[in-house]
Design a protein that fits this description.
By secondary structure, the protein is of the alpha/beta class. It has a domain of about 260 residues: Amidase signature (AS) enzymes, CATH 3.90.1300.10. About 40% of the residues lie in helices and about 10% in strands. Strands 1-3-2-4-6-5-10-11-9-7-8 form an 11-stranded mixed sheet, sandwiched between helices.
């Protein structure tokens, strides 16, 4: 067991709380002390209401004393990406557009966490409106990677990853539109799960690209990810894309599923641009699975090369539509310099949005415009169907697919900031999962010679999260990567 409270897992802390070795209030105070000690360097939090967290911790301790514990998450603080609504708390999306906005309601995942007894734990930084791969696009601050403060934590959920890796949270939630949970998890040495599209409600999530966005957990271990997923998954009538699927006890399922499995290696994911140290770490992970008796089979995902292009047409088109609501009239930033209504609209959006958000709105508006809709948007949707079919064809032969999570380890702050295309290619291995609506999980699979974490991505069949988590845990059991902590 880790010696410091802030380094322990959800499962460990839940056990200590149940045995009365620790109170929720003591846990919250330990995390507050840790945040005070390191967040001026990590810069993961946009805001945190300490008084509210302590009040909820005391309420949890009272429930436990009365024999009314709500389960393993009761009294556990869970950090939330600042695009997930928490009533009475800021909801900024790390944008000047929403800098002063206070959410009037809870997102469904927030409601579910509260029902499980968890404590909403601050508002975590991100790339503005979840558009980016490094958290450098935030209008609030640039979050740093706890393993090397000169490097990025990934994005867009960089604050969620960095807070957990730095010991400022026990588990966190992020959102994943094209890799925004899995890539930061890989960069920060964490488990990051993007669930099947529709398994977790999007109600109360600030929308970027509605057909791609999905909320999921960051955790230190696969078991912790299973615990958090079990609390937030399930049908929600307030989300029209929510799927009526049975939600098993994912933690219990981990004990039942032992393999061996048929695992696919997509030949298209191991070519140009893959860092040699990342490739070597993934190869060792594949060999480990083979040693467990798993069948390793090469598979083909032939439309992979079109994924980035299709993604950045579909995502920007939906971004253009979703962000039209931020007009300076209904809510959000309102320019004080405007001379009339039209000028108000233009100035408010120009002042409120950052460069990357503007870039994507312009591109999205273009591909949806008259004369270009068929040439770009409709064609991208057809490619999306082909990419999904590639995965489904592969799943006739294998149970899951193994790939690198990201082509490189964490890069330096500023290294790719002036080159949007280079930044977009950071998600080359993750965006296909979103286009196909599949579950994807990143687990730590080693470190580079420079001490930077490397992530292994496991891609599963729709709504087969229990199997995907079991495959991930089979690897985790044989390695100590998840037990390592950065030296801040």
């Amino acid at each position: 067991m880790a010696s410091e409270i802030h380094d322990q897992t959800v499962a460990e802390l839940a056990g200590r709380l149940a045995r009365r070795e620790l109170s929720s209030e003591e846990l919250v105070r330990a995390l507050l002390a840790r945040k005070d000690a390191v967040d001026d360097r990590v810069k993961a939090f946009n805001s945190l209401d300490a008084d509210s967290a302590l009040a909820e911790a005391r309420a949890s301790d009272a429930r436990r004393s009365a024999g009314q514990s709500r389960g393993p998450l009761d009294g556990i603080p869970i950090g939330l990406k600042d695009v997930i609504a928490v009533a009475g708390q800021p909801l900024t999306a790390s944008s000047r557009m929403l800098a002063n906005f206070i959410s009037p309601y809870d997102a469904t995942v927030t409601v579910k966490l509260r029902a499980a007894g968890a404590i909403p734990w601050g508002r975590l930084n991100l790339d503005e409106f979840a558009m980016g791969s490094s958290t450098e696009n935030s209008a609030m601050q640039t979050t740093r990677n706890p393993w090397d403060l000169s490097r990025v934590p990934g994005g867009s959920s960089g604050g969620s990853a960095a807070a957990l890796a730095a010991g400022e949270a026990v588990a966190t939630l992020g959102s994943d539109t094209g890799g925004s949970i899995r890539q930061p998890a890989a960069f920060c040495g964490l488990v990051g799960l993007k669930p099947t599209y529709g398994l977790v409600s999007r109600y109360g999530l600030v929308a970027f690209a509605s057909s791609l966005d999905q909320i999921g957990p960051f955790a230190r271990t696969v078991e912790d990810a299973a615990i958090v997923l079990g609390a937030i998954a399930g049908h929600d009538a307030r989300d029209s894309t929510s799927f009526r699927a049975d939600v098993p006890d994912y933690r219990e399922e981990l004990k039942q599923r032992r393999g061996p499995w048929r695992l696919g290696i997509p030949k298209e994911y191991f070519g140009e641009g893959l860092d040699p140290e990342v490739a070597a770490a993934v190869a060792k992970a594949v060999a480990y699975y083979q040693g467990l008796g798993c069948t390793i089979k090469e598979v083909s995902l032939p439309h992979t090369e079109y994924g980035v292009g299709a993604y950045y047409i579909i995502a920007t088109a939906e971004c253009s539509s979703n962000l039209a609501r931020f007009d300076g009239i209904r809510y959000g930033h309102r320019s004080k310099q405007a001379t009339d209504v039209v000028d108000l609209y233009f100035r408010s959006r120009a002042e409120g949005f950052g460069p990357e958000v503007k870039r994507r709105i312009i591109l999205g508006t273009y591909v949806l415009s008259s004369g270009y809709y068929d040439a770009f948007y409709l064609r991208a949707q057809k490619v999306r169907t082909l990419i999904r079919q590639d995965f489904l064809n592969a799943f006739h032969e294998v149970d899951a697919i193994l790939t690198p999570t990201a082509p490189t380890p964490a890069f330096r702050v500023g290294e790719k900031a002036a080159n949007p295309l280079a930044m977009y290619l950071c998600d080359v291995y993750t965006i296909g999962v979103n286009l196909a609506g599949l579950p994807g999980n990143s687990v730590p699979c080693g470190f580079t010679s420079g001490g930077l974490p490397v992530g292994l991505q496991l891609i599963g069949q729709p709504f087969q999260e229990a199997e995907l988590l079991a495959i991930a845990q089979a690897y985790e059991r044989g390695h100590d990567w998840t037990a390592r902590r950065p030296a801040l």
